[in-house]
Amino acid sequence: xxxxxxxxxxxxxxxxxxxxxxxxxxxxxxxxxxxxxxxxxxxxxxxxxxxxxxxxxxxxxxxxxxxxxxxxxxxxxxxxxxxxxxxxxxxxxxxxxxxxxxxxxxxxxxxxxxxxxxxxxxxxxxxxxxxxxxxxxxxxxxxxxxxxxxxxxxxxxxxxxxxxxxxxxxxxxxxxxxxxxxxxxxxxxxxxxxxxxxxxxxxxxxxxxxxxxxxxxxxxxxxxxxxxxxxxxxxxxxxxxxxxxxxxxxxxxxxxxxxxxxxxxxxxxxxxxxxxxxxxxxxxxxxxxxxxxxxxxxxxxxxxxxxxxxxxxxxxxxxxxxxxxxxxxxxxxxxxxxxxxxxxxxxxxxxxxxxxxxxxxxxxxxxxxxxxxxxxxxxxxxxxxxxxxxxx
Length: 392
Ligand code: ATP
Ligand code: MG
What we know:
Elements: H1 3-17, E1 22-25, H2 27-34, E2 42-45, H3 49-55, E3 58-63, E4 68-73, E5 76-82, E6 84-87, E7 97-100, H4 104-109, E8 119-120, E9 126-127, H5 132-138, E10 140-141, H6 147-153, H7 156-168, E11 171-172, H8 174-183, H9 192-204, H10 208-217, H11 231-234, H12 247-257, H13 265-271, H14 276-294, H15 299-319, H16 326-334, H17 348-353, H18 360-375, H19 382-391
Helix pairs in contact: 6-8, 7-9, 7-10, 12-14, 12-15, 13-14, 14-15, 15-16
The structure holds adenosine-5'-triphosphate and magnesium ion.
């Protein structure tokens, strides 16, 4: 067992010794069986949250109402959730009410896919109620129980299905896919934030292109912001040569494929509830992509885009099959006399000290100095810039 499980074992044993049941569940069990990297382990127990808290010195009330307590143990933290079922799904969204139950089977039944419904006990034995092990071997994502019913309970599961396809390189089991095709419209009930998180995980997964094809084929794409009626433009995505590795690259590629105009990028990003910082970066990458498609950028254009966005735009151009001489661009960027405004030898105060009155003129002059320095026409030193000011 990986260290992360071994470290967590005493936590399960403490619960068992207190007379409760405790198991590893969910993604970590799936990932250990697949030999994938594990980032955190989820623990399910028959103990109620208050009972869990009694057993450990340091705990955090993460989601008491949903049965989740975070336990801090030996420098690690573990989410421990009481066995529960979910009921009263309203509006095709995650239920507000959960009911704690005393047995693991009920808890596993509420889980989305067979490969996510495996549990492991303290002996390392796997409990497999729904043939999740065989689906792991077959590399298929299959809903637990009746897929139609499960997607009606929580329509986000349809996005989770294509996201796991991408991350795990799995196929969708036939009936699960059919249920998505038949009920993709249910996705409209789900909040954009939750759809976005799954969409991004899908777009950045190692099998993004295949999963994206299923996202289009099942028409899930018709029920997310700004994608309706755009399947033809989006159908380029599955034919790209690489998958994007960065979220900004993913959004930039989508925006370029959708031919969204520069002044509409903000709207698109807001529709998807992306942060201003993310929107900003994507706007820069997309507009620099336009520059690269139009002409070889000048030194000042390289200076303005900056190293990070330059490299990200080159990445986007490569993925989209747009030829760019990336080595030459990077070399030219690295040879710039200054790479950031903060590296300029002077600032506004220096100009004022040299007799320039505060005002818009001063800003223009500073900009001119910066351009001359970047172009290599003016040395980046107080002396040289002082002389330049005198000549004005
Ligand atoms: P990841 O590696 O992305 O964390 P994960 O399988 O652990 O994958 P989580 O979203 O962390 O996914 O959820 C943990 C577990 O909770 C899942 O494995 C699954 O058993 C269950 N689960 C999560 N979301 C749902 C849902 N919408 N419907 C049913 N079960 C769910
Ligand atoms: Mg998880």
